[in-house]
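TA notes. Do not distribute before section.
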Amino acid sequence: MSEALQRKAAAGVQTRRADGTHRVVVTGMGAVTPAGVGVAPLWEAVMGRKCCIGEVTRFDTSAYEVHIAGEVRGFDATEHGLTKKEARRFERFVQYAIVAADEAMAQAGLDMEREDATRVACVFGTGIGGIDELQSGFATLSEKGPKRVNPLFIPTMIGNMAAGALSIRHGFKGECLNVVTACATGAHCIGTAVRDIRHGYIDAALAGGTEESVSPICLAGFANLGALTKAEDPACASLPFDARRAGFVAGEGAGAVVLESLEHALARGAHVLAEVTGFGSTGDAYHMTAPAPDGEGVVRAMRQALAEGGFSPEDVGHLNAHGTGTPPNDATEARALLELCGEEAGRAVPVVSVKGTTGHTLGAAGAVEAIVCALSVMNDCVPPTAGFSEPDPECPVNVLVEAKTGYPQKVALSNSLGFGGHNACLAISPFRPEGA
């Protein structure tokens, strides 16, 4: 960006943080979820406390213990901007990423013909990648031999292909990354892009996460692990923080955001939606699948995110929780919030988990939930949590059953936790020209 444009962008607006680094803002958002294609149906479903979970339609689950999931039903990529060739070649996780990213790019109005492409990055991950192609490829190898395996098996299946395909589609020539931290993937991808922009390595990025996890091998593996609920009624299956919770519901989809330095956004006349004011990233060093019971790593991630934005725990407007509906996760996250804010204040902070609406979209969850968090602070509200009705003494936090409206906030936190002890927290604030 030229000095003249920087001066124009900075006129009357505080574009840098106190430490001299760039403010990072959101200018576009896109989503594909069990609520449908687009951010609007997602927001409508979450605010309406709608459950978008149902019986699995993609394959026969009669031999399985689990029969429900958060599918993206009726999805046809060719109805949303992909060619028939692209739809045949790309796995569902790539298709979801492309459709979500196209929406985010359109809203941002980022014209790559006018950008320095080497200053625009793509940081887009997936927790599992092309699991359908992987399962199909092994079956072909076993049943028909090596000569019959799809010659595009590897580039179709590998998880980095979402970021690769998006960079090719839009002409991004900055960093092209696939950060993988299981269920924290989407949040870590956004946080990585935020740090790159904040410290001046790039001007803008497309970031997010995607997943195609409603598949035979995934449902079998998660079910045998004991991670999935065996509930038959979709409305009583994904129950974040509820006393009846018994596991998560597998979901799928993608979330995408366009991030820019505030200087860059103002210079091109972009409409700023919200600001990512902080990012925290920690490890538990505890267990392969279980979170550390005391929530110490989660607390550190939340404190890091707040501190980076110059906030204190008293400033937290609400928590968009990871809230999977598994007994260990929700109890740990509740303890972490009370440790962060103090027992009394922590019990008052509004809490939402969108997984009651969508199920757990794994590698996409952090990005989808960051979008909901941004919409919440933009609209001075906190959504309710679908499925929640019976408070659990082990989770003494303020989970909403009705939307809280007319509620301006300085900052909200969006948590994501992944198998292996990966913790990510994004601090998201309404955009204020003068700064936080």
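Switch to the second chain here.
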Amino acid sequence: MNRETNEKKQKILIVHNYYQIPGGEDTVVANEKKLLEDNGHEVILYTRDNNEIKKMNFFRKLLLPFTSIYNPRTAKDIKKIIKENGIDIVHVHNTLHLISPSVYYAAVKCGVPVIQTIHNFRFLCPGAMLYRNGNICEDCINKGLRCAIRHGCYRNSRPQTFILVLSALIHRATGIYRKVNFICLTEFNKQMLLRINRKKQIIQPSKVFVKPNFTFLNSSDHSEPM
């Protein structure tokens, strides 16, 4: 029997929160879904779209800062999908703003491994870029996330930045990140992510892996990743 015959096919839940403006993360999600399905795995996609915010009533918008930290709807949805479909792995891409980190807690509660692909530096920097005023900025790594509030690093807004900082501090404090597996796109990104452990262990180094993005090489009769 060959390796493919012996390999247990997985049921994978991919979780992604689309931004209002489409970006590279969306392409990665689509590519990974296709690759997994092409290799016989079953993939279920759980998504939200930040364009939903435009249609929210005043009350729901008022609650958004709180649900972006922990969204009970997400936790309920994820648990239901896991139980009804026998999910083996939960693979998260983006959680901002509607899904929230509640997806991690739901997966852990159900005893299912959860993976977070790191597409940017948001775990270290609310602005996600480690870049400010035309220069590389590592203040949030070296001096603490409160630096971002002072500069309004997320959308030039101190209130919005405060919510992201509060969310990060809460979830760091609960220890949930130590239960999450992380995929970084390069070795450099891995080493940068692990700087989050500068003062205490927030992420387990043994649970951080490197897997580059890929695209498909198309031909007249087949398509394969490259």
